[in-house]
Write a structure and sequence with these properties.
two-stranded antiparallel sheet, single chain, mainly beta, 1 helix
C-alpha cells in the first residue's frame, strides 16, 4: 500500500484542495482530516473575506494519484528532482484512488 496518507495539493504556492487516500480513509474521515489540518480556514477571525464552510460528503470527489519520480511538466511544479504526488489516470501504474475536497467550492463570504 502507498505511503501517501493525506495532504493539501497546491497550485502556484496556494493550497487549492485537500486530498486523502481512499483506501485508508472513509469520506467522513477525509472531511474530518481536512478540517483538522486546515482549521484556520474555517474560522471567521482568519477569513480575510473568504471563509470555508464545513464540507459534506457531497463535496468529496474521487480522483487518482500516483508518485512521480520527476514532476510531469503539465504540473508546472519545480520539484528540484525530489518527485511529487499528483493526479493521474485511473489504472496508471502506481495509481490509487483518493478523496478530494476542493477549497474553492467551499468558499463563502465573511466579515471577519
Amino acid at each position: 500500500m502507498s505511503k501517501f496518507d493525506y495532504m493539501n495539493f497546491s497550485v502556484g504556492g496556494y493550497d487549492t484542495e485537500f486530498v486523502a487516500h481512499a483506501g485508508k480513509y472513509t469520506e467522513e474521515q477525509a472531511i474530518n482530516l481536512c478540517i483538522q489540518e486546515n482549521d484556520w480556514r474555517f474560522k471567521p477571525e482568519y477569513c480575510n473575506g473568504r471563509l470555508l464552510r464545513v464540507p459534506t460528503v457531497d463535496d468529496v470527489k474521487t480522483r487518482h494519484v500516483r508518485w512521480y519520480i520527476r514532476a510531469p511538466e503539465s504540473c508546472g511544479y519545480d520539484d528540484s528532482g525530489r518527485g511529487c504526488y499528483t493526479y493521474c489516470k485511473a489504472g496508471e501504474k502506481g495509481s490509487f484512488p483518493v478523496w478530494v475536497v476542493e477549497f474553492a467550492k467551499l468558499e463563502v463570504e465573511c466579515n471577519g
